[in-house]
Automatic annotation (TrEMBL):
<feature type="transmembrane region" description="Helical">
    <location>
        <begin position="12"/>
        <end position="35"/>
    </location>
</feature>
<dbReference type="InterPro" id="IPR045584">
    <property type="entry name" value="Pilin-like"/>
</dbReference>
<protein>
    <submittedName>
        <fullName>Type II secretory pathway protein LspH</fullName>
    </submittedName>
</protein>
<dbReference type="InterPro" id="IPR012902">
    <property type="entry name" value="N_methyl_site"/>
</dbReference>
<keyword id="KW-0812">Transmembrane</keyword>
<keyword id="KW-0472">Membrane</keyword>
<keyword id="KW-1133">Transmembrane helix</keyword>
<dbReference type="Pfam" id="PF07963">
    <property type="entry name" value="N_methyl"/>
</dbReference>
């Protein structure tokens, strides 16, 4: 004997729920991976922009002949000194020594290297260019499987 009901059973089956949860999980997983990759590219691009900015600041300060209080001798220029694989310093360079203006640490996961034995890179006063013995050098920032290059040429052009 079967009982008949006027109400039909409404709802989702277990299989439908599992399929829905799996699809949602895949969408979130792919979105997270894409966001993480984007975030890492932005960190690398930001570090390269900051390096270009510090190089341009050194160039501008040298062109302007701006001395700091520590520089009591004749101003020779401003230099970018790569102090380690993860940091660099902007320094004013005078006849009585070099003095730090700003120190920059790269974000975690990034490293810095150059293809030139010249370190620091000096921007000379009065637009006399740089101390580079070759036509240009590459400063490379790497991390997260990605690479960004900053090129400085002998005349002081920064790309």
């Amino acid at each position: 004997m079967q009982l008949q009901s006027d109400q039909s059973l409404k709802g989702y089956t277990l299989v439908e729920l599992l399929v829905s949860v799996t699809i949602i999980g895949l969408v979130f997983g792919v979105g997270y991976v894409a966001f993480r990759s984007f975030s890492q590219r932005q960190i690398l691009d930001g570090a390269a922009r900051d390096l270009r900015g510090q190089l341009r600041l050194a160039q501008e300060q040298a062109l302007a002949g701006k001395k700091t209080a520590d520089c009591t001798g004749t101003l020779t220029g401003y230099q970018l000194n790569i102090t380690s694989g993860v940091s660099y310093d902007l320094e004013v360079y005078c006849t009585n020594g070099s003095f730090p203006v700003k120190s920059v640490d790269l974000p975690t996961g990034l490293s810095l290297q150059t293809d030139s034995p010249v370190n620091p890179i000096l921007f000379k006063v009065l637009g006399e260019g740089t101390n580079l013995p070759v036509s240009s050098i590459n400063i490379t920032i790497t991390g997260f499987g990605l690479t960004q290059s900053v090129v400085v040429n002998k005349t002081g052009n920064i790309e």
